[in-house]
């Protein structure tokens, strides 16, 4: 079994910064990719950023230049540094992980979600 534990989030004024973290634990053979999605009220869940095992990243256009993903492989943890936050960034942010627990078993996992609210 694999668990994703998120931390961070909260309320911040426009222009402010927040950092999210997500730690993966459990039966891990290989982390193929990790990242963040978000879902605002009434909208579908959307990609924020993903980092794959070779270090390549894929950012949503709406966050490029403002958000930065990083990882600590020793801790199986990814971080999302969010700067210059805008009200439209308000959403529940979900950690995502594509994990292989063996050569044959590969699954997607999700964190519980953490609320980010940007308002004055």
Count of DSSP-assigned helices: 0
Alpha-beta classification = mainly beta
State the end-to-end distance. Answer: 41 Å
The 3D shape can be described as elongated
Following the backbone from N to C, one meets helices and strands in this order, namely EEEEEEEEEEE
For the largest beta-sheet, the strand count, sense and barrel status come to: 7 strands, mixed
Description:
There is one protein chain. The protein is mainly beta and 120 residues long. Helices cover 0% and strands 58% of the residues. Strands 2, 4, 5, 6, 9, 10 and 11 form a seven-stranded mixed sheet that branches. It has a four-stranded antiparallel sheet with strand order 1-3-8-7, with no helix packed on it.
Distinctive features:
four-stranded antiparallel beta sheet, seven-stranded mixed beta sheet, elongated, 120 residues, mainly beta
Task: Walk me through the topology.
Blueprint: E1 2-7, E2 10-12, E3 18-26, E4 30-39, E5 46-52, E6 57-59, E7 67-72, E8 77-82, E9 91-100, E10 106-110, E11 114-118
Parallel strand pairs: 2-11
Antiparallel strand pairs: 1-3, 3-8, 4-5, 4-9, 5-6, 7-8, 9-10, 9-11
In brief, what are we looking at here?
The chain has 120 residues and is an all-beta fold. Helix content is 0%, strand content 58%.
């Amino acid at each position: 079994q694999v668990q994703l534990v998120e931390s961070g989030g909260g309320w911040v004024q426009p222009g402010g910064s927040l950092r999210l973290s997500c730690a993966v634990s459990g039966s891990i053979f290989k982390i193929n990719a990790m990242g963040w999605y978000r879902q605002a009220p009434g909208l579908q869940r959307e990609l924020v950023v993903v980092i794959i095992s070779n270090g390549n990243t894929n950012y949503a256009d709406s966050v490029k230049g403002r958000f930065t993903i990083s990882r600590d492989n020793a801790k199986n943890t990814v971080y999302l540094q969010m700067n210059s936050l805008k009200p439209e960034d308000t959403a529940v942010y979900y950690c995502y992980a594509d994990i292989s627990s063996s050569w044959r078993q590969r699954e997607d996992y999700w964190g519980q979600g953490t609320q980010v609210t940007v308002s004055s």
